[in-house]
Structure formats: C-alpha cells, structure tokens
C-alpha cells in the first residue's frame, strides 16, 4: 500500500503558510507504517506539538495502469483523515531545499477515520470536510474549493506511477491548520449525502 499525499490543494491554505499557489499538484508520500485509526497510538515525539491538516482521503478500489485516466470510478471508498505535520521540522527542511520526509512520515502521522463507500459522498461539488479539536471548530472546506479536483489528481498520479487497489490518497487541506498535542480530542466530519462524524484522540 502507498499513501499518496497532495499539498497546497486549497489556495487559502497555501497562502496561510506563505507558499505560492501551485500550477500543478504538489505530491509527497507517507510510509504505510504511518497509518493509524482514531484511537491513541504511541507517538515518536509525544511532547512535540504537531499541526493538524484535515483531508478527504480516497481509497483506491482497483489497480490503475500507468497513464490511465480513471476519474471517480477508481475510488472505492472515502474517509476523512488527518495529515499530521511537524511544522518546525518542515520549515527548516524547506529553507534548506531538503525533502519533507522527517516532517510528514513518522509513526501515527496518517490518521484515517472509518471508510465509507464512495457513494456516501453524494455530489462531490456539494461535499465537504471539517475538524474540531477539543470542541472548537478548527478547519472546514468544500471539495469544490480544491485547486485540483479528484479526477485531475488521479490523472496526475497515474502519470507518475501505477496505483494499486488499497492505496490511499490524501487530497489536501483547507485553511486553519494549527497545533494539536498528544491527548487532545478531535472530531472529524464528512458532509456528503448525509453528515457523518467520528470522535478520536491523538
């Protein structure tokens, strides 16, 4: 399984971090061993605040060949997840022109909530995601605000490599990223055909 991640896919988020709005998807990876659910797991940096980035997560439902253009038909499941980021480490790496792996790929850094069939999303143009931390709304966004929609992202990824059934794609985060610490409680929300919410703890 590969965890594909898209950065800066909401213009307001790119701007809040002082980044240029990209003209093509920004792609990075997380190790499969980063994956976790909503229950607490041991974290390698338990005293370090990390930044939360709430995202729609796609579960790829079938193998996709190099250069294919599958659109939404390739998505078997959807979920809401958190891309956890060591922001200070990332900022130093960016300033030196180094990769982001130490900031993005660590134990517990890929939080994924329960998976639902793709149809639960309803009309993607109307769907959205949200995150609360300790009872306060931190992030919310609509899929229609993405710079690159899901068909475009999948076409871009399959131009790089084949995708396989079971791969996950984190599709980018709306603005409002902030610190979250071990022990904080959070709530993920998917606003699709119905509204689904899930509670978790870092």
What features would you describe in this structure?
The protein has 202 residues and is α+β, with helices and mostly antiparallel strands. It has a single domain, classed as Alpha-Beta Complex (Fumarylacetoacetate hydrolase, domain 2). Helices cover 14% and strands 34% of the residues. It has helices spanning 11-16, 87-95, 101-104, 150-158; strands at residues 3-7, 26-30, 35-36, 50-52, 54-60, 75-83, 110-112, 116-117, 128-133, 136-142, 168-170, 178-180, 185-191, 195-201. Strands 1, 2, 3, 5, 6, 7, 8 and 11 form an eight-stranded mixed β-sheet that branches. Strands 10-9-13-14 form a four-stranded antiparallel β-sheet, with no helix packed on it. Strand 13 (185-191) and strand 14 form a beta hairpin. The mean pLDDT is 95.
Comma- or semicolon-separated keywords:
single chain; 202 residues; Fumarylacetoacetate hydrolase, domain 2; 34% strand
CATH C-level: Alpha Beta
Instruction: Give me the number of helical elements.
Output: 4
Number of strands: 14
β-sheet strand percentage: 25-35%
What sort of overall outline do the alpha carbons produce when their principal axes are compared?
globular
Largest sheet: 8 strands, mixed
């Amino acid at each position: 399984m590969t965890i594909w991640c898209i950065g800066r896919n909401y213009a307001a988020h790119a701007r809040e971090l002082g980044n240029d709005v990209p003209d093509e998807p920004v792609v990075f990876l997380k190790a499969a061993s980063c994956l976790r659910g909503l229950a607490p797991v041991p974290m390698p940096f338990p005293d370090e605040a990390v930044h939360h980035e709430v995202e729609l997560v796609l579960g790829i439902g079938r193998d996709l060949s190099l250069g294919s253009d599958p659109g939404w038909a390739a998505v078997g499941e959807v979920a809401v997840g958190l891309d956890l980021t060591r922001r200070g480490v990332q900022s130093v790496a960016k300033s030196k022109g180094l990769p982001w792996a130490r900031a993005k790929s660590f134990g517990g850094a890929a939080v994924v909530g329960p998976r639902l069939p793709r149809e639960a999303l309803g009309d993607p143009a109307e769907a959205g995601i949200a995150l609360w931390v300790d009872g306060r709304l931190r992030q919310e966004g609509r899929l229609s605000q993405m710079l690159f929609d899901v068909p475009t992202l999948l076409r871009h990824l399959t131009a790089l490599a084949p995708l396989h059934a079971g791969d996950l794609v984190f599709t980018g985060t709306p603005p409002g990223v902030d610190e979250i610490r071990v022990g904080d409680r959070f709530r993920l929300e998917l606003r699709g055909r119905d509204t689904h919410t899930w509670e978790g703890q870092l």
